[in-house]
Amino acid sequence: MLFKVREKLFSLRNEFVITDGQDNPMFKVIGKFFSWTNKMSFQNLEGEELALLQKVPFTFFATRYQILTKGTLYAEIQKHFTILKSRFTITEGDRSTLTLKGSLFSHEFQFFREGKPIASISKKRFSWRDSYGVDIPDGEDVLLILCSCIVIDQILHKNHSHGASHGR
Question: Which residues neighbour 166 within 8 Å (Cβ) at sequence distance 6 or greater?
Answer without folding.
Answer: 159
